[in-house]
Amino acid sequence: MPTLETTVDGLKLPNPFVIGSGPPGTNGKVIGRAFDDGWGAVICKTVSLDASKVVNVQPRYARLRSRHTMDEKGQGEIYGWENIELISDRSFDTWLDEFKALKDSHPEGVLICSAMEEYDKTAWQDMIGRCQDAGVDSFELNMSCPHGMPERRMGAAVGENPDLLEEICGWVMEVAKVPVWAKMTPNVTHIEDPARASLRAGCQGVSAINTIRSCVGVDLDTLRPEPAVEGYTTPGGYSGPAVKPIALRMCMEISKLIESEFPGRSLSGLGGVETSHDAAEFILMGSSTVQVCTGVMKMGYGCVQQMCDELLAFMEKHGFETIDDFRGKSLPYFTSHSDLVKKQADARAAKKAAADKKKMVRGDAEWDGDDFVEQSDALARG
Question: What is the residue range of the signal peptide feature (predicted)?
Fold first, then answer.
């Protein structure tokens, strides 16, 4: 009988589905709701020591809808979602109180703190220490938010610089007593570079990918880019099903890096996950856990129940007993284009040789009544 229970970096999860950092983990009340609905773990919205610097705007989302497929409301299905939302605007002390309360009310729930700070060793280590004391089970370091406060060397401003990233991860690992994942930005040429820097600094794992820096579109009546705030906007982070192919490719690249240089480290995959089929693909690419954020904003917290049921059905179909039985199982089938050309040429040559051998009779014992006419034709010319 297959099971979804899994242990990742010492964290015991009832299933591999994790609430990704963002609005679905924006306060203790909704985090508790996620635990109640059966999520394997929850990552809170990103916290920092000084929330007073966080000022959000309205509107802060823009969505792309299909022209062909409709949702239950008769609107085009959402396949792309841009946000210009910042990290949590709630005070750090409030978060500490809620972390403690959550560990009291849901002691078995795996609570992961998403953390971000300025380029300041003391600030980073103070934040990590105080969150640990409040009872969080793990950390995800937000080194990848594509918008908001880059001038403070926060988010993607760090994640795009492997040297800076390795230094800050090193500060965290000096004081961390629980597992640490670093969240990767996709807005780089080679995602292996920041992943390598994080793992070299000692992080137990990485998460990939965060949102893709984007401009979702322009209002053709007003000629203003969206989402427009007083007629202006700023590039934001793109998520939803449209980013999944990019996320899968980057997870494959990170998994191959882990396999070759950092065996035993973990990957938490995300980017466009809305169904069990999406989740299975990320696990086949080497992910130990799978995060959902935008999907929860579209479908609600209860979507995890169907995803669990369908993932179990997938495992039963293929004879997999555990998540590890099929984690990374698709990785060996990636190769270079030149190797694809060679493999295809070899396969065609082998197929032709087999066909020729079957057709051409070389001795009387090889005649076959079922293929007598074909064998005769193969021996004839004209």
Answer: none
- Which amino acid makes up residue 319? G
Amino acid making up residue 370: D
Q: Which residues of 2-17 are buried (b: 16+ CB within 10 A; e: fewer)?
A: bebebebbebebbbbb
Bond preceding residue 179 cis, omega within 30 of 0: no
Q: How far apart are CA 231 and CA 225, in angstroms?
A: 8
Residue 2 identity:
P
Q: Give the pLDDT of residue 148.
A: 66
Helix 337-359 vs helix 372-379: crossing angle, to nearest 10: 100
Q: Coil, helix or strand for 292?
A: strand
> Treating both helix axes as pointing N-terminal to C-terminal, what angle do 276-284 and 303-318 enclose, rounded to 10 degrees?
50
19 in helix, strand or coil? strand
CA Rg value for the chain: 25
The dihedral through the CA atoms of 89, 212, 245, 165 has a sign that is negative
Residues catalogued as catalytic: 145
Strand partners, 238: 82, 212
- How far from each other are the two terminal CA atoms of the chain, in whole angstroms? 62
**Alpha carbon distances (Å) from 57 to 87, 227, 233, 298:** 12, 10, 10, 21
3-state secondary structure of 8: strand
Sign of CA dihedral 28, 11, 159, 243: negative
> What number of CA atoms fall less than 13 Å from residue 358's CA on the CB side?
10
Alpha helix segments (H runs only) across the chain: 28-37, 92-105, 121-133, 156-159, 162-175, 192-200, 244-261, 276-284, 294-299, 303-318, 337-359, 372-379
Helix (H, G, I), strand (E, B) or coil at 89: coil
Run means of pLDDT, 10 residues per run, the chain, 382 residues: 97 98 98 98 98 95 91 87 96 98 98 97 98 98 85 87 97 98 97 98 98 96 98 96 98 98 98 98 98 97 98 98 98 98 97 78 78 80 70
